[in-house]
Specification:
42% of the residues lie in helices and 13% in strands. By secondary structure, it is α/β, with parallel strands linked by helices. Strand 3, helix 5 and strand 4 form a beta-alpha-beta unit. The two termini are 27 Å apart. The mean pLDDT is 97. Bound molecules: 3-methylbut-3-enyl trihydrogen diphosphate (2 copies) and magnesium ion (MG).
Length: 261
Amino acid sequence: MQRDIEKLKAYFQDAPADISLADVDLERLPRHVSLIMDGNGRWAQARGLDRSRGHVAGVDSLREAVTTSVRLGVDVLSAYAFSTENWKRPQREVNLLMHLFATTLVKELPLFHQENVRLRFLGDLEALPKETRDVFQRGLDETERYDGMTFALAVNYGSRAEIARAARLVAADVAAGTLSLDDVDADAISSRLYTAGLPDPDLLIRTSGELRLSNYLLWQLAYTEMYVTDTYWPDFDRWEYLRAVRAFQGRGRRYGGVVNS
Ligand code: IPE
Ligand code: IPE
Ligand code: MG
């Protein structure tokens, strides 16, 4: 964890009336924050714009969420950018998103360098257009040595496909004799998920009001605190982030045990 208090205070200046940096306990921050970035299309439609404009505006929110996470000292930020089901969308929108991922990453790489952020991807990248895959690989290569925050972007990600893949990997190891049947436990699955090595999310934020997971991190979210805001993703800013953290800190996490007093 890295946190620069002066930068942090400057970043959270000009607070709105209902929330400020003082409302969160910096010693009890979620270690891993995860985002379901939803509502780009509705944001655009509400303004009479094409859905694609919502996706473009959503990039600014994601950049701000990365910066907010770094400033606060969150260890891992993950974000759902494209699901295995999103291929059902009109070809034009899919193409735009794939191109947007590539161009945005190229533009934003300096931020990762500047803030010591390591990039990861969750999902099957093989199915992505070559332009996007190549840029993603460049991002991975250029940031692999960074040990500040980890930013994990879920692209062509689906939880069921991820778990099925982990099961396949387990089966292959058992068949090869490198894993015994008795050792097939929760850790054996976790270590074969795209999120291998990352802590499970402490806080999941979903924008645009939908109360569902949409095939996101079904395994990893077992004991995650969920926060849903009606705000559309392009309007999600550092203050919304703080409101989510404040809500998180008001929860009593029990993991099936009893309340700590
Ligand atoms: C989230 O916004 C972005 C992606 C799923 C790629 P949507 O595009 O789902 O926006 P809505 O839900 O239709 O408003
Ligand atoms: C979930 O949003 C996927 C991403 C945010 C990438 P969707 O907009 O695809 O989810 P549904 O269709 O409303 O469940
Ligand atoms: Mg949506």
